Amino acid sequence: MTSLGLVMFFLSCVIFQAFPVSSSNYAGLFPDLYQFSCPQANEIVMSVLEEAIAKDPRMAASLLRLHFHDCFVQGCDASILLDKSSAFKSEKDAVPNKNSLRGFEVIDEIKAKLEQVCPHTVSCADILALAARDSVVLSGGPYWEVPLGRRDSKTANFKKANINIPAPNSTIQNLISLFNRQGLTEEDLVALSGGHTIGMARCVSFKQRLYNQNRDNLPDATLEKTYYNALKSVCPTSGGDSNISPLDVGSPVRFDNTYFKLLLWGKGLLNSDEVLLSGNVKKTKELVKSYAEKEALFFHQFAKSMVKMGNISPLTELKDEIRKNCRRVN
Ligand code: HEM
């Protein structure tokens, strides 16, 4: 290459990184963004996760959920990671998150390592997206390319965290409308709910189903009998609210399609899981059955829907920042 050619190549790299090509699929994000500016990024994320998940296999689930709870509140901008400050309340203290979200220390460790190797380059929002993908892969699930280039918010939204994140006792209509508001379809809802193939829920999240499903002091009739009895011993009528139970009792740390099979057998843990099948929406019902039958179909749609969720309102302007510490604005 001539020296002019080299200069042109260098300039095009710089311009491309500063103004990533906008594509409707990727919402202005670009999978190879850190190829030159931080080629070790993927490796660093993966190596921290391998250790964290080997120590605590549930961590994969917790990190997948963090990305979801980030994206549903003012977009995938790492607002979920901000500690409370004099300027705003933390999303961490909102009802769906408090005493429930985990994994913040693992994100801190990834960020600290990235700042050492390529300072001020990889955003906290991108770390969340990569950690979610790698957690799924390390649990035996599908791989997908993660579009990158999200920047980090300078504020959090406590109120929206309470409003936008679906509650475990949601009806099918609630779920569909909360997902639609984020630009996600019924297909995305069912596939992404399959994230519940890993991880745990607290008794308080499913107690209503065991003792008072319809304000009638009766259990949810869709619960299979032996499963219902086992849940009652983990989750008594009073107290035990923070006792935990697997969302996929068949294979709680393996990313597979067992979650959908369990739904067909009356062994889904949350009301929001059960209503995908019993909520009288033909489309979601059919999708549950298809994913229970064909794991490959579920994996394909899950990967597609994760990219779509990861593209919710990313910040891509230079005025938005790349935090040095994911817990506070610079
Ligand atoms: C469809 C609406 C959804 C509802 C109502 C819902 C609700 C919940 C609830 C209540 C818990 C247990 C929290 C606790 O008791 O501490 C939970 C856990 C979890 N959720 Fe969801 N969720 C939904 C969608 C999703 C999506 C889209 C994903 C990811 C793609 C996801 C991934 C997870 C994971 C992995 C866990 C386990 C976390 C852990 O073990 O730390 N959820 N969810």
Automatic annotation (TrEMBL):
<feature type="domain" description="Plant heme peroxidase family profile">
    <location>
        <begin position="28"/>
        <end position="330"/>
    </location>
</feature>
<keyword id="KW-0349">Heme</keyword>
<keyword id="KW-0325">Glycoprotein</keyword>
<dbReference type="InterPro" id="IPR010255">
    <property type="entry name" value="Haem_peroxidase_sf"/>
</dbReference>
<dbReference type="GO" id="GO:0004601">
    <property type="term" value="F:peroxidase activity"/>
</dbReference>
<keyword id="KW-1015">Disulfide bond</keyword>
<dbReference type="Pfam" id="PF00141">
    <property type="entry name" value="peroxidase"/>
</dbReference>
<dbReference type="InterPro" id="IPR002016">
    <property type="entry name" value="Haem_peroxidase"/>
</dbReference>
<feature type="signal peptide">
    <location>
        <begin position="1"/>
        <end position="18"/>
    </location>
</feature>
<keyword id="KW-0376">Hydrogen peroxide</keyword>
<keyword id="KW-0106">Calcium</keyword>
<comment type="function">
    <text>Removal of H(2)O(2), oxidation of toxic reductants, biosynthesis and degradation of lignin, suberization, auxin catabolism, response to environmental stresses such as wounding, pathogen attack and oxidative stress.</text>
</comment>
<dbReference type="InterPro" id="IPR019793">
    <property type="entry name" value="Peroxidases_heam-ligand_BS"/>
</dbReference>
<comment type="similarity">
    <text>Belongs to the peroxidase family. Classical plant (class III) peroxidase subfamily.</text>
</comment>
<comment type="similarity">
    <text>Belongs to the peroxidase family. Ascorbate peroxidase subfamily.</text>
</comment>
<keyword id="KW-0575">Peroxidase</keyword>
<keyword id="KW-0964">Secreted</keyword>
<keyword id="KW-0732">Signal</keyword>
<dbReference type="InterPro" id="IPR000823">
    <property type="entry name" value="Peroxidase_pln"/>
</dbReference>
<protein>
    <recommendedName>
        <fullName>Peroxidase</fullName>
        <ecNumber>1.11.1.7</ecNumber>
    </recommendedName>
</protein>
<dbReference type="InterPro" id="IPR033905">
    <property type="entry name" value="Secretory_peroxidase"/>
</dbReference>
<keyword id="KW-0408">Iron</keyword>
<keyword id="KW-0560">Oxidoreductase</keyword>
<keyword id="KW-0479">Metal-binding</keyword>
<dbReference type="InterPro" id="IPR019794">
    <property type="entry name" value="Peroxidases_AS"/>
</dbReference>
